[in-house]
UniProtKB/TrEMBL annotation:
Entry similarity comment: Belongs to the UPF0065 (bug) family.
Keyword hit for Transferase: no
Keywords: Signal
Signal as UniProt keyword: yes
Protein name: Tripartite tricarboxylate transporter substrate binding protein
Organism: Ramlibacter agri
Domain of life: Bacteria
InterPro entries assigned: BUG, Bug_dom1
Lineage, broadest ranks: Bacteria, Pseudomonadati, Pseudomonadota, Betaproteobacteria, Burkholderiales
CDD domains, sorted: PBP2_Bug27
Signal peptide (from-to): 1-26
PANTHER family: BLR1237 PROTEIN, TRICARBOXYLATE-BINDING PROTEIN
Length: 323
């Protein structure tokens, strides 16, 4: 994630005053109806929990219910299409992510939408960092030791993922490229099976969002976080850059986008409300393992472009194929 901390500090400074003022939406009489967030994720997972958490702090500000409508399928394409075809009135928004906005355009040759032509970015809201975790019996206790071990055993260190083209797969490829090592990718049909085999010692390493939890239970060992800064969940863990391998920042971000024809002034007003909702202390308390990363529409658009370019380069260099 390349978003800087300064915008968040400005939001924090202004949040107290903003809470005392009438909402921009209330002042204009908008929205007159409930707001719907189309999520391309199934119920119960992180991609579903996060928009519901945002909705809980957003709806008191706007004076209307904020509802989450799950439309999973086709690697998030079904939800994206439903949102893209909605009226550009700010009442239907899309729960966008790294996958739908930056990876799908590379992975799917006939993707029926263009992230920046068919959508108007509103704000990145959350980032779920990936942790570098290893099997307990692997004889390494730091990133540098892992790099040395991989160099001494070229092509023999295995890294697991939830499938070809998944975020944890691409994270492993990026790490190998940045560290100058050769590792063997072992794809699974979902992250669950990969983690099970990692704990059993069948594979060696993995990049995983829930890595800290497994490390705390003693089931796996966490070496570092693939982020540009240490996380709230595990401040004791260094970033991979701090540990000696720069350029390995990987996180799954989530945010809001609107249909492309949504008027820009309306996009900006929605973004302002979302930004102020995100600094609600209750949100940080409810989501201790996720980084809250509010952005502007312009920052979100820049992030989409940067991530697409980064992953296109990684995918080409590693000759990644998609399931």
């Amino acid at each position: 994630m390349t978003l800087q901390s300064e915008p968040r500090r400005r939001l924090l400074l202004g949040a107290g005053l903003a809470a005392l003022l009438p909402s921009a939406w209330a002042q204009t009489g908008w929205p007159a109806k409930p707001v719907r967030i189309i999520s391309p994720y199934t119920a119960g997972g992180l991609g579903d929990i996060l928009p519901r958490a945002l909705a809980s702090v957003l709806q008191p500000r706007i004076g209307q219910p904020v509802l989450v409508d799950n439309k999973p399928g086709a690697s998030q394409v079904l939800g994206a299409q439903a949102a893209m075809r909605s009226e550009p009135d700010g009442l239907t928004l899309f729960w966008a992510s790294t996958t739908s906005m930056a990876i799908n355009p590379i992975a799917q040759k006939k993707l029926p939408y263009d992230p920046l032509k068919d959508f108007a970015p509103i704000a990145i809201c959350f980032t779920a960092p990936l942790y570098l975790i290893v099997r307990p019996s692997l004889p390494v206790k730091s990133v540098q030791e892992l790099v040395a071990y991989a160099r001494a055993n070229p092509g023999k260190v295995t890294f697991a993922s939830g499938g070809n083209g998944s975020t944890n797969h691409l994270a492993g490829e990026l790490f190998a490229q940045q560290a100058g090592v050769k590792m063997l990718h072992v794809p699974y049909k979902g992250a669950g099976g990969a983690i099970t085999d990692l704990m059993a010692g069948t594979v060696d390493i993995m990049f995983e969002g829930n890595g800290v939890e497994y490390a705390r239970k003693g089931q796996l060992r966490a070496l570092a976080v693939a982020s540009n800064k240490r996380t709230r969940a595990a401040p004791e863990l260094p970033t991979i850059a701090e540990a000696g391998v720069p350029g390995c920042e990987v996180g799954v971000w989530f945010g809001l986008a609107a249909p492309a024809a949504t008027p820009q002034p309306l996009v900006e007003r929605i973004a302002t409300e979302v930004q102020h909702a995100l600094v609600d202390p209750e949100l940080a308390r409810r989501l201790p393992d996720v980084e809250i990363t509010p952005s502007t529409p312009q920052q979100m658009a820049a992030q989409v472009r940067a991530d697409t370019a980064k992953w296109r380069k990684v995918i080409a260099a590693a000759n990644v194929t998609f399931d």
